[in-house]
Amino acid sequence: MSNASLLILPGDGIGPEVMAEVRKVIDWYGAKRDLTFDVSEDLVGGAAYDKHGTPLHDDTMAKAQEVDAVLLGAVGGPKYDSLDFSVKPERGLLRLRKEMDLFANLRPAQCFDALADFSSLKKEVVAGLDIMIVRELTSGIYFGEPRGIFEEGNERVGINTQRYTESEIDRVARSAFELARRRGNKVCSMEKANVMESGILWREVVQKVHDEDYPDVELSHMYADAGAMQLCRWPKQFDVIVTDNLFGDLLSDAAAMLTGSLGMLPSASLGQPMANGRPKALYEPVHGSAPDIAGQGKANPIACILSFAMALRYSFDQGDEAARLEAAIETVLANGARTADLMGPEDGTPMSTTQMGDAIVAA
Ligand code: ATP
Ligand code: MG
């Protein structure tokens, strides 16, 4: 894997700050593990708008289609709030997702032991937590037609349509089963088949994909509302959760808070397999550009570093090296390393972004 290609798009706000720490990790792999990447870097979001007048240049889009993986920091910031919708920084990210056809959004919720006390729930509920939510990202109620605000009689009506085709459900279900085989071998599918036709079809297709091609994986079905309750009550019962765009949006945000901080959460968005058999892929921290702390060296780089770990695992076939990186993070946290987002108001002086990156590389 010496010529695995990676496109880095640091973006705006804290994006470039956390990405600089990922660079250190990449350099370490080159120097110490003889694992090198063909890394190129480009602009996205406000940074691209400032230079090109568009949040994603066509050349950058073309490059993203060619590489093995894209790693993105964050986009947006107050400076761009008044821009026209068509050139807003967020449009750059949406264009990447759409043109790369990234239909499966993977959001792990993993609680590092050293942070179990800090998390929003009691320690026994979250210690050792390691679940993966697979959210369908390119269809469902956010995209279905008809949509809009229409006149109806003497009032207006707002309409969105939940719409799923069998093939859209089929492909995201396969992503979930494939993932489960590499993890705890368990999938829980969540919908509302009791009140939604799309939910009935969802359940049917997921079951069929399972019975035909993944009978070895343990499959269960849950109504999404009951699933939300179970997720808070006893999240460790889950391994992989597969769900639609809307429910996935809500459930993954809820699951995120089980782990403690936005600064700890990576994500991956995967599409169809490329010629080399690996899926098209974009990795990014769940957090945004955090304008309130940008430029101050306060950002936690772990979410972005964990996103790179996901790239190692899912795009570069380096699961052992990904585990090595995650173990280094566990070690520094266990040794008490904390950026400000991982501390309470009376917990002393936090580490800077750079100090946290250096500590992880050292570990
Ligand atoms: P977006 O609209 O892009 O999702 P947002 O406004 O929802 O952005 P974020 O930019 O993710 O939110 O930031 C939300 C809060 O979390 C901010 O107060 C920010 O300071 C904090 N935060 C986000 N990421 C980090 C990080 N890596 N380290 C420390 N704090 C963070
Ligand atoms: Mg947000």
TrEMBL record:
<feature type="binding site">
    <location>
        <position position="249"/>
    </location>
    <ligand>
        <name>Mg(2+)</name>
    </ligand>
</feature>
<keyword id="KW-0028">Amino-acid biosynthesis</keyword>
<dbReference type="InterPro" id="IPR024084">
    <property type="entry name" value="IsoPropMal-DH-like_dom"/>
</dbReference>
<protein>
    <recommendedName>
        <fullName>3-isopropylmalate dehydrogenase</fullName>
        <ecNumber>1.1.1.85</ecNumber>
    </recommendedName>
</protein>
<feature type="binding site">
    <location>
        <begin position="77"/>
        <end position="90"/>
    </location>
    <ligand>
        <name>NAD(+)</name>
    </ligand>
</feature>
<feature type="domain" description="Isopropylmalate dehydrogenase-like">
    <location>
        <begin position="5"/>
        <end position="360"/>
    </location>
</feature>
<keyword id="KW-0479">Metal-binding</keyword>
<feature type="binding site">
    <location>
        <position position="253"/>
    </location>
    <ligand>
        <name>Mg(2+)</name>
    </ligand>
</feature>
<comment type="similarity">
    <text>Belongs to the isocitrate and isopropylmalate dehydrogenases family. LeuB type 1 subfamily.</text>
</comment>
<dbReference type="InterPro" id="IPR019818">
    <property type="entry name" value="IsoCit/isopropylmalate_DH_CS"/>
</dbReference>
<dbReference type="InterPro" id="IPR004429">
    <property type="entry name" value="Isopropylmalate_DH"/>
</dbReference>
<comment type="function">
    <text>Catalyzes the oxidation of 3-carboxy-2-hydroxy-4-methylpentanoate (3-isopropylmalate) to 3-carboxy-4-methyl-2-oxopentanoate. The product decarboxylates to 4-methyl-2 oxopentanoate.</text>
</comment>
<feature type="binding site">
    <location>
        <position position="135"/>
    </location>
    <ligand>
        <name>substrate</name>
    </ligand>
</feature>
<feature type="site" description="Important for catalysis">
    <location>
        <position position="192"/>
    </location>
</feature>
<comment type="pathway">
    <text>Amino-acid biosynthesis; L-leucine biosynthesis; L-leucine from 3-methyl-2-oxobutanoate: step 3/4.</text>
</comment>
<feature type="binding site">
    <location>
        <position position="97"/>
    </location>
    <ligand>
        <name>substrate</name>
    </ligand>
</feature>
<feature type="binding site">
    <location>
        <position position="225"/>
    </location>
    <ligand>
        <name>Mg(2+)</name>
    </ligand>
</feature>
<feature type="binding site">
    <location>
        <position position="107"/>
    </location>
    <ligand>
        <name>substrate</name>
    </ligand>
</feature>
<comment type="subunit">
    <text>Homodimer.</text>
</comment>
<feature type="site" description="Important for catalysis">
    <location>
        <position position="142"/>
    </location>
</feature>
<feature type="binding site">
    <location>
        <begin position="288"/>
        <end position="300"/>
    </location>
    <ligand>
        <name>NAD(+)</name>
    </ligand>
</feature>
<keyword id="KW-0520">NAD</keyword>
<keyword id="KW-0432">Leucine biosynthesis</keyword>
<feature type="binding site">
    <location>
        <position position="225"/>
    </location>
    <ligand>
        <name>substrate</name>
    </ligand>
</feature>
<keyword id="KW-0100">Branched-chain amino acid biosynthesis</keyword>
<keyword id="KW-0464">Manganese</keyword>
<keyword id="KW-0460">Magnesium</keyword>
<dbReference type="Pfam" id="PF00180">
    <property type="entry name" value="Iso_dh"/>
</dbReference>
<keyword id="KW-0963">Cytoplasm</keyword>
<keyword id="KW-0560">Oxidoreductase</keyword>
